[in-house]
Amino acid sequence: MIVHSETCYTLHTAHTSYQMSVGPDGMLLHTYYGARLPDRAPDLTDGRAAHGDPGCWTDLLPKEWSAPGTADNRTPPCVPEYADGTEAAELVFAGAAVLPGKPALPGLPAFRGGADVQTLSVTLRDVFGLEVELRYSVYEKEDLITRTAVYKNAGSQPLTLHKAASLCMDYAPGSLDLITLNGTWAAERTPERAPLRCGIQSVGSIRGVPGHAHNPAIALCRPDTTETNGDCWGFAFVYSGNFLIEAERADAGQRLVMGIHPYHFHWTLAPGESFAAPEVAMVYAQHGLGEMSRRFHTAIRTRLLAPRWQDMNAPRPVLLNSWEACYFDFDEAKLLELAAAARKADIDLFVLDDGWFKGRNDTSSSLGDWVEDKAKLPDGLPGLCRRLNEMGLELGLWVEPEAVSPNSDLYKAHPDWAFVVPGRRPLEIRQQYTLDFSREEVVDGIWQQLERVLRSCPIKYLKWDMNRSLANVYSAALPAARQGEVYHRYVMGVYELQRRVTETFPGLLLENCAGGGARFDCGMLYYSPQIWCSDNTDARARLLIQYGTSLFYPGCVMGAHFSTVPNHCNGHISTTEARMAAALSGTFGFELDLTTYTPEELEALRPYVAWYRAHGGLLRGGDLYRLAGPDASALGAAWMIAAPDGSEAAVFAVGDALSGSHGTASMNSLPRLPLQGLDPAAVYEDEQGVQYTGAQLMALGLPLPGPRGQTPACIWYLHRV
Ligand code: GLA
After folding, report:
1. pLDDT in the model for residue 256
2. How far away, in angstroms, is 226 Cα from ligand 1 center?
3. pLDDT in tens, 543-569
4. Binding positions for substrate (predicted)?
């Protein structure tokens, strides 16, 4: 619900409110984001603004938006350059409107609108011609607000944007912690929490993709906020390219700015033209980080994923991926042997990873030539698909559409399709170049190849990989003055191709991937309902990665596979139960050479597959409660997924969590794991028929069996009797 007067605008969701107000000289001020206010809340602008202390107000007041050159010296959300070379703008309130639904951002992913969504559009204008339209869409039930900014040149001369962020928000003075998700290849999205220091702390990417190092989502919270208590504000960028998130602590308070990274971004607007920035999804929670995460999870499941993937009770295939099973070393006979073993474990879908196309036997060749390697697949993909189907398995396939190998036929035919700065040596990473997806004809060329492959036989799943960062970014199709558009146009090209793939093949399950988890963001989730979390499939490592990922993203979107021991990435050995706990909390699949398994070992995998099928609706659609967090020194974790109505729950405990969440294990008393999210009055029964009340489980906890050697783990299913 949006309530407003001439000067004050309040956005209400079920449990949160957001308010802005027009202050002195038309300055738009941020006045509140927190727990739900009364419907007709008064304007919460503080006294200084109301009385307008002309000497200092502009640098001290909490703003809703700002521009440089106006004595507000905090980091600005936008930097325009006018034709006269000046870079100052005084953006003042010019009007606002409440719109039903949500206007589209053409070519960009966004949380989906609907009849129950309202949008506030506020226009700010500078006398020299820059207009910024701030858009806020309110999702009441989900406690979600999305924001963006649309920049328009309403003047008579061209103007250039050097920075065009999506969000700016000021907090009143006080201490805040900043939580970011950081890492590297095979160790993505490890949470890091630290008090915001004076100055600017930022995370970002100039790699062309968000990258392994930082995720484009952050949270701010009070220093005493925990999993279950305290204020927190979460922000997730709905974008899959360069980004910059700046959190600044200044004398007047804190400022958060989020948007496309200004590195090599400049966008000239002719009079009348506009530029739409990607959106940011925001959630406030009063009851700690757990509540914040659950709000993001629900919003992502019900408002971001494509409608056809929103039904969490609809079955999802259990897959086997060939990568860790055989890498590049396979032929059809070997694949069919692997498939036969997969079938014995009751697996549904066989994913043929890298290496299936012309001459691809290692990373040195063939990207861009998307035709079957007849040496490995004599009857092509249709032949393999037919044989798999006869065995009762579906076919899935790996591609890397944005990549091209220097020795490929595609590159030989179109050397200008790859990014290279004229006069510089083209830069190989993983022995490949990147195609210039800012160009329509390049996207068209790859689409023609992909469409042919996807039409050649019933392919049910596509893994879209992207294995390097962008470099040498220069488009042969644009003049020098417009090279600053290329990074963003590239991302738009990726979105366009994913749109074509998913709209033309609506039944196809698309999984995004980027050298593991380098493109794990809300932009990708608009097109694909799942993303490969990390190339590290070790259970212990996955606990950290998936725990961090779960801060914003639900388990149903986290690509997670059961793999072999010792783990191929780090050599670690963990129990079957621990590896299953990690995989079952994500999309659940397998990635190992099952031909080495005995018939009894294959048989022993079936109950896990059956368990996933039986409880898939709960695992994908339930509410996540993080019960015990893993940390880098004592790896172990416990978490549970409860049905929103408290009727059932799945509980997982791995490693040190089994020593009890309140201290070390005692040999004399069983440690207990207190649960959350249950109905206190209800009686629950576990799979052994043991009964507990919800109150007991939440206060005293579930009795744990105690530590049992290397990375022990337990998995429970409880239902209300
Ligand atoms: C990336 C992916 C892996 C695998 C390989 C294939 O590293 O993350 O899962 O697909 O590429 O080359």
Report:
1. 98
2. 36
3. 999 999 999 999 999 999 999 999 999
4. 185, 353-354, 430, 463-467, 513, 535
